[in-house]
Design goal:
The protein is of the alpha+beta class. It is about 20% helix and about 25% strand. The structure holds 2-acetamido-2-deoxy-beta-D-glucopyranose (2 copies). One 2-acetamido-2-deoxy-beta-D-glucopyranose binds next to loops. The site of one 2-acetamido-2-deoxy-beta-D-glucopyranose has 2 residues, from loops. Keywords: Apoplast, Disulfide bond, Glycoprotein, Manganese, Metal-binding, Secreted, Signal.
Amino acid sequence: MSPKLIVLLAIFSLQCLLALASDPDPVQDFCIPNPKYGAIRPARFTILPCKNSSEATTDDFVFSSMKSAGNFSETGLATIPVNPANFPGLNTLGMSFVRADLKAGAINPPHFHPRATEITHVVQGSVYSGFVDSSNRVFARVLEQGDVMIFPRGLAHFQMNVGDKPSTVFGSFNSQNPGSQKIPTAIFGSGIDDELLEKAFGLSPKQIGMLKKGLIPKGLN
Ligand SMILES: *[C@@H]1O[C@H](CO)[C@@H](O)[C@H](O)[C@H]1NC(C)=O
Ligand SMILES: *[C@@H]1O[C@H](CO)[C@@H](O)[C@H](O)[C@H]1NC(C)=O
């Protein structure tokens, strides 16, 4: 094989790998994890043995626990993440979703999902929503009831209820395990050395201490 051909083949293989950077395609209709093998935990989503498909029932494909808001944090945000851990029928299907309710003025702090693009649908209320791209451009506006917005995979995004009534938002992810990293916690609540944070943000040790203390108890983590 000529060296040129080998290089072309290598580039082609790399492109195939990049194109496949998502949940694997299912190799059967569905795979409801077999409860015999223990509780479903996020880290084990894709390696759980399926139960015999002849034992699947309609109820395995119906989720009824997001009809009302979840438990509100001190900051007024309630989320119900729905993934194979609480809805086993989703296993291997490459998607998951979330219900978020925000009290008037409440925020969903900047965060990102390393493994999924999110599409959000404002079911009720007025929600300032947006994301920041890798050139630090902000794409944000107030969404009204019925509006849908996309948060591309891996990009930081945020929401704030700017109405005077509670708002409800549904989000869907193109991964059964999107992951979620909250920026305030990743920076100030993860144990990064204070000296580095002081230099990165140009803040004093006292200011860094206040940020660390302030964020976590308020439920922004
Ligand atoms: C699944 O269940 C069907 C019907 O009970 C049975 O015939 C089949 O052998 C089972 N398959 C496995 C792999 O256990
Ligand atoms: C809300 O809190 C109760 C009591 O701790 C708990 O049983 C329930 O599962 C929680 N609901 C959600 C959606 O997390």
